[in-house]
């Protein structure tokens, strides 16, 4: 199993969230655990820039050779950027999930809820392994 970066926050739906320290805009991606479980990612559908998203809502999809999985908004706010590179090359979700494989950025309208620390997320993934 791959390592889980300590500086990020996580959801039980296997998304990671970076940038909570600035309090405004966060970057969201899929964890390496999820990418490994999905297999080879072949298609990514992301929300539109300018879309308002609600924490917990399904806002996109990741399709792999094995299945299709929803992407959930980890925070409430406005999508301010999507990673067109990952739309054009979905394999980045597998090869660099915490770097070039990020999905979108959200300007938060409120504080995040129900996010997990790296230790808590490790417990979740251990139970699912």
Can you walk through the features of this model?
The protein has one domain (9-110): OB fold (Dihydrolipoamide Acetyltransferase, E2P) (Beta Barrel), CATH 2.40.50. 21% of the residues lie in helices and 33% in strands. It has four helices and nine strands, in the order βββαβββββααβα. The protein has helices spanning 32-38, 84-88, 92-95, 118-128; strands spanning 9-10, 15-18, 25-30, 41-45, 52-53, 58-64, 68-72, 77-82, 104-108. A hairpin with a 4-residue loop joins β1 and β2 (15-18). The chain is globular. The model has no long low-confidence stretch (mean pLDDT 92). The glycine cleavage system is composed of four proteins: P, T, L and H. Residues 25-107 form the Lipoyl-binding domain. The modification N6-lipoyllysine is found at residue 66.
Tell me briefly what this model is.
The modification N6-lipoyllysine is found at residue 66. The chain is α+β, with helices and mostly antiparallel strands. It has helices spanning 32-38, 84-88, 92-95, 118-128; strands spanning 9-10, 15-18, 25-30, 41-45, 52-53, 58-64, 68-72, 77-82, 104-108.
């Amino acid at each position: 199993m791959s390592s889980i970066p300590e500086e990020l926050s996580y959801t039980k739906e296997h998304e990671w969230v970076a940038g909570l320290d600035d309090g405004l805009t966060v970057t969201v991606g899929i964890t390496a655990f999820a990418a490994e479980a999905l297999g080879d990612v072949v298609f990514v559908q992301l929300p539109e820039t300018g879309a308002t998203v609600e924490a917990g809502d399904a806002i996109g999809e990741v399709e792999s050779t094995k299945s299709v999985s929803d992407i959930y908004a980890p925070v409430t706010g406005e999508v301010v950027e999507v990673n067109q590179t990952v739309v054009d090359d979905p394999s980045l979700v597998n090869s660099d999930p915490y770097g070039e494989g990020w999905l979108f950025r959200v300007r938060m309208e409120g504080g995040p809820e129900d996010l997990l620390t790296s230790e808590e997320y490790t417990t979740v993934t251990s139970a699912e392994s």
